[in-house]
Write a structure and sequence with these properties.
- By secondary structure, the protein is mainly beta.
- It has six helices and 76 strands.
- The chain has a six-stranded mixed sheet with strand order 1-25-26-27-28-29, with no helix packed on it.
- A hairpin with a 7-residue loop joins β10 and β11.
- It is globular.
- This is VPS10 domain-containing receptor SorCS1.
- Its main location: membrane.
């Protein structure tokens, strides 16, 4: 289960927030591999069920260890990213790492360069230096004789160059540094901190760093290396989200593990050593001194003194799965939520107090294990995932109450789920269903986050730079319930907009005219405006969209006009009426910064070339003026705006050449205003959707500055007026289990039974009987059809129990002996409060309950024996009864299997094979047998089989034993011959003193005995096989084999075997066969007696004595060796045949 967004916001909305950060990260190509991930918002941890569309980890995440990505081969000069609001986020930007020609640009800007080159080739076409139908490029002059366009239809560009007030400061001595982190405190603070670093690609670490501080809004900077230690190498800068004066610096752990702490906005520092290596930090959303630290060895620490002292909370914590308590949902502000791994690798959801997290004080809010990396705690909701039966199941806890399974339409059958938003007491989720591959369906929940209904199908998705899922959904800032989404229709991606949280969607109307005022012929639904909604950490990735809470009507985005969304011919568009109409403002990609509550828009072109100009608009993008912000063209690496509501100071980061120091250009926009706005400078503006003024059940009128007034707005006041609307059908969505049909009505889905009552409904109580509709959450309408469409309380009728089921909590039909198994009783309908439930576990134990509510957490039981148990449940009330049965297989772990076989057998004689198990009683087993040349296995429930071999030769027998999730096997080899001789051997008693009775020892001793027999008799080794038998006293079996060469010729006759047998008996009787076991220990080999049947090795080992048969024949490269069974026939009275012993 995955999570998209941050702070309950959509992916693209997250991008808007990232653009509003007070902390900026710049880095050379590839240098961000060792750079930090984006810290989280001050309000709490970012959701992590799916990777966010911009890099996100725990708040203030430190650099992850490991090799960085490979550096790009060309300078990365790419587009600037803006940051204008307070916060502690980090954005990856870039600066060129080395000296290259200006024409060498990174791959991302290649498309723009090709397009520019094509235009340049036009030569005398009269368009040089001007974008087609657009604004002149930097440094280009307007063409003489260019016809004037209608100013009311075209975007106007004023080409007179104006000058902004700016100062430039160089970070002298840092020209080699390829990473920078910038923090601007804001909120009437003039302090800016900059940490620059040199990241060494070969070493994979930071080798140099410098810390700079400004106290005059960036006009001048002081280098603080002497205050933090001249030899100290800093790796990361942290800022307390609730007190910007508190700064924390982390040293490079390759050198030392220390923290430097400042409480005066970085003026002075105290150094504290650590006994662990920090990977990420999470600040408390309210308490400025409380911090959680995650170490590189997966331990979680807490500090109540802003990092001065640390205490271990828990080991084995899953990365990024730890959270502070959410105020309002948790009573204890110091409560920590975390996902931890057990010793056996399972994941558990735990909670505990930050300073008292002992085993006795930990709670487990979710019973049992959860899927790894699935815990999310956000706002009033906690989410976990549990997979059973091959399907993921999702659970939610609302306001820390008991977990409930999240209910999607019955046949959604999700493969993947990402929670996008939990704003306004509602869950917005993206679900990839069983038949989807690159798209997701959007679902929206009720207040508790349990029941979900479809909001939009087939929303486009993609994978981010780190393999994370990115959903093309954008929540527009400042307007509740307004979203943009890219939907895939017949392999075309189109942009849709909604004003009521997904209840209704429509395409975007394209602009009426282009930049020059020429008509745009684009007819819905065949042609419309399409926008890029992705927000990426990659500066090369196209697609920017921006909106602000303080400018609710203004949306700026890149996109194209046509039948579908395209990655080519991207232009910039603006809407000043909340997405109803759009204007084209540039024909090339620009980054846009909101100043003065959106009263001023600043646009800076995406280019690989140095620039010194930007564009300003004072009338919501209708006209633009050209301003220079520096006298020398600058390669722009990034832009950081002053945090706060008024935002009139901006710092541009860049460099004049590829080898120069960082250049910091402070731009002050206050000089362009001559006064503050007065009441007469504003006009009312009413939010609407295609003329419909009721949005989310209310009419809202905002105050806008008149476009012709060039005054400074100051603080944002929000909506000027808000009036509730009368409820209509448009304010209601379909309830769970209902679907909207073409006539607009919500009717039951084929799988849903509206008459089904809640299992909690009891006779004499009431329940809410759905009308098929539910009001959109946060909709403020009143009266009208509200009463008609709202669910009605209804008395619970008495009903007999029906649909009774009993299952295990994990959905399995197996349980382990001696361990708790949790059984769940489920009832579709019936009076559960006045119901008697009887459960018989099938092992002689039974229990009774008076209602189902007392069994909500399941019934736990321990089975002390293995076997198949018939678990029955009987439910009775005054109107009837129902029963259910579960056949539960109780097993214990199977440790090993040993296949017991004769060493040798005769042709056409029945052979018994037995699988010997350890332990012997493990429960229900399945045996799979392969033998001889059979290609199909024999499957049995018994551990023994019988079979015959009809031809001579070696045969392999394999048995596999399946016990629960474990499958073990053993393999043996058996030889088949028509005749051979066999004799039991015994040894001098001292051999027993050295016999450990293990298979390896028996194999080695068999080889030594055979060697002694060959040396004493001169009989070729191919005729002799010795197998030492298990047990004491030590004994062995000697086989005389009718060996033949590989051609099949020269096979020994019975007479030959008789001669060999007599020779062996003679030497054994003369005590001629002996061997030295160890220095000074001589072992004599004697003839004991003939065997009456083939011998069987019963040793319970994994491989048994199959290897006893693999003797010297192997060394001569023959395929046939070891033990042979023999055919019944008469033989001379010496070494005898089976069934005919020597008299």
């Amino acid at each position: 289960m995955g999570k998209v967004g941050a702070g309950g916001r959509s992916p693209a909305r997250l991008g808007a927030l990232l653009a509003g950060a007070g902390l900026l990260v710049l880095c050379a190509p590839g240098a961000c591999g060792g750079a930090p991930r984006c810290p989280e918002p001050p309000s709490g941890p970012a959701p992590r069920w799916a990777p966010a569309p911009a890099p996100a980890a725990a708040a203030g995440a430190a650099p992850r260890r490991g090799p960085p990505p490979l550096p790009l081969p060309l300078p990365l000069l790419g587009r600037p990213l803006f940051a204008v609001a307070p916060g502690d986020r980090a954005l990856p930007l870039a600066r060129a790492p080395g000296s290259r020609a200006a024409a060498e640009v990174a791959p991302r800007s290649g498309r723009r360069r090709r397009r520019e080159a094509a235009r340049g080739k036009a030569g005398g076409g009269g368009r040089a230096g001007r974008s087609p139908r657009g604004a002149p490029r930097d440094g280009a002059r307007p063409e003489p004789g260019t016809p004037e366009r209608d100013p009311d239809r075209a975007t106007r560009f004023r080409m007179e160059e104006l000058r902004l007030t700016s100062t430039t400061f160089a970070l002298t001595g840092d020209s080699a540094h390829n990473q920078a982190m910038v923090h601007w405190s804001g909120h009437n603070s003039s302090v800016i901190l900059i940490l620059t670093k040199l990241y060494d690609y070969n070493l994979g670490s930071i080798t140099e760093s410098s810390l700079w501080r400004s106290t005059d809004y960036g006009t001048t900077y002081e280098k603080l290396n002497d205050k933090v230690g001249l030899k100290t190498i800093l790796s990361y800068l942290y800022v307390c989200p609730t007190n910007k004066r508190k700064i924390m610096l982390l040293t490079d752990p390759e050198i030392e593990s220390s923290l430097l702490i400042s409480s005066d906005e970085g003026a002075t520092y105290q150094k504290y050593r650590l006994n662990f290596y920090i990977q990420s930090l999470l600040f408390h959303p309210k308490q400025e001194d409380w911090i959680l630290a995650y170490s590189q060895d997966q331990k979680l620490y807490s500090s109540a003194e802003f990092g001065r002292r640390w205490q271990l909370i828990q080991e084995g914590v899953v990365p990024n799965r730890f959270y502070w308590s959410v105020m309002g949902s948790n009573k204890e502000p110091d409560l920590v939520h975390l996902e931890a791994r057990t010793v056996d690798g399972h994941s558990q959801y735990l909670t505990c107090r930050m300073q008292n997290c002992t085993e006795a004080n930990r709670n487990k809010p979710f019973p049992g294990y959860i899927d790894p990396d699935s815990l999310i705690v956000q706002d009033d909701y906690v989410f976990v995932q549990l997979t059973s039966g091959g399907r993921p199941h999702y659970y939610v806890s609302y306001r820390r109450n008991a977990f409930a399974q999240m209910k999607l339409p019955k046949y959604a059958l999700p493969k993947d789920m990402h929670v996008i938003s939990t704003d306004e007491n509602q869950v917005f989720a993206a679900v990839q269903e069983w038949n989807q591959n690159d798209t997701y369906n959007l679902y929206i929940s009720d207040t508790r986050g349990v029941y979900f209904t479809l909001a939009l199908e087939n929303v486009q998705s993609s994978r981010g730079p780190e393999g994370n899922i990115m959903i093309d959904l954008y929540e527009v800032a400042g307007i509740k319930g307004m979203f943009l989404a890219n939907k895939k229709i017949d392999n075309q991606v189109k942009t849709f907009i909604t004003y009521n949280k997904g209840r209704d969607w429509r395409l975007l109307q394209a602009p009426d005219t282009d930049l020059r005022g020429d008509p745009v012929h684009c007819l819905l639904p065949y042609c419309s405006l399409h926008l890029h909604l992705k927000v990426s950490e990659n500066p090369y990735t196209s697609g920017i969209i921006a909106s602000r809470d303080t400018a609710p009507s203004i949306i700026v985005a890149s996109g194209n006009i046509g039948s579908e969304l395209s990655d080519s011919d991207i232009s910039m568009f603006v809407s000043s009426d909340a997405g109803n109409t759009w204007r084209q403002i540039f024909e090339e990609e620009h980054s846009v910064l909101y100043l003065d509550q959106g009263g001023v828009l600043v646009a800076m072109k995406h280019t690989s070339l140095p620039i010194r100009h930007l564009w300003l608009s004072f009338d919501e993008g209708r006209s633009w003026s050209k301003y220079s912000f520096t006298s020398i063209p600058l390669f722009v690496d990034g832009v950081l705006g002053e945090p706060g509501e008024e935002t009139l100071i901006m710092t541009v980061f860049g460099h004049f050449s590829h080898r120069s120091e960082w250049q910091l250009v402070k731009v002050d926009y206050k000089s362009i205003f001559d006064r503050r706005c007065a009441e007469e400078d504003y006009r009312p503006w009413q939010l609407h959707s295609q003329g419909e003024a009721c949005i989310m059940g209310a009419k809202r009128i905002y105050k806008k500055r008149k476009s012709e007034r060039k005054c400074m707005q100051g603080k944002y006041a929000g909506a000027m007026e808000s009036e509730p609307c009368v409820c209509t059908e448009a304010d209601f969505d379909c309830d769970y289990g209902y679907e909207r049909h073409s006539n607009g009505q919500c009717l039951p889905a084929f799988w849903f039974n509206p008459s089904s009552l809640s299992k909690d409904c009891s006779l004499g109580q009431s329940y809410l009987n759905s009308t098929g509709y539910r009001k959109v959450v946060s909709n403020n309408c009143t009266d009208g059809v509200r009463e008609q469409y709202t669910a009605k309380p209804q008395k619970c009728p008495g009903k007999a129990p029906r649909g009774l089921r009993i299952v295990t909590a994990d959905g399995k039909l197996t349980a382990e002996q001696g361990h708790n198994v949790t059984l769940m009783v489920q009832l579709e309908e019936g009076d559960v409060q006045r119901t008697l439930i009887q459960v018989d576990f099938g092992d002689g134990i039974a229990v009774s309950y008076v209602n189902l509510s007392s069994m909500e957490d399941g019934i736990k039981h321990v089975y002390h024996n293995v076997g198949i148990f018939r678990v029955t449940v009987q439910v009775d009330n005054s109107l009837g009864s129902d029963s259910a049965v579960l056949y539960l297989h109780v097993t214990c772990p199977l440790e090993h299997v040993h296949l017991s076989l004769p060493f040798v057998t005769t042709k056409n004689k029945e052979v018994n094979a037995t699988a010997v198990l350890w332990p012997s009683q493990v429960g229900t087993l399945t045996y799979v047998w392969w033998y001889g040349n059979n290609t199909e296995p024999l499957i049995t429930l018994e551990g023994s089989i019988s079979f015959k071999f009809t031809s001579e030769g070696m045969n392999t027998i394999t048995v596999q034993v399946s016990a629960g999730n474990a499958i073990l096997q053993d393999t043996k080899t058996i030889a088949v011959y028509e005749e051979f001789r066999s004799l039991r051997l015994s040894f001098s008693p001292n051999l027993d003193d050295y016999n450990p009775d293990i298979p390896e020892w028996r194999r080695d001793i068999s080889r030594v005995i055979k060697k002694s027999l060959v040396e004493a008799t001169g009989v070729p080794g191919q005729h002799i096989l010795v197998a030492v038998l298990p047990g004491l006293p030590t004994a062995a079996e000697l086989f005389v084999l009718p060996y033949q060469d590989p051609t099949g010729e020269n096979k020994r006759s019975a007479e030959d075997l008789e001669q060999i047998s007599e020779l062996l008996i003679h030497k054994l009787n003369q005590n001629s066969v002996h061997f030295e076991l160890k220095p000074g220990v001589q072992i004599l080999v004697h003839a004991a007696h003939l065997t009456a049947a083939p011998l069987v090795d019963l040793t319970p080992t994994h491989s048994g004595s199959a290897m006893l048969m693999l003797l010297s024949v192997v060394f001569v490269g023959l395929a046939v060796f070891v033990i042979y069974k023999f055919k019944r026939r008469s033989s001379p009275p010496r070494l005898g045949l089976i069934g005919k012993p020597i008299p």
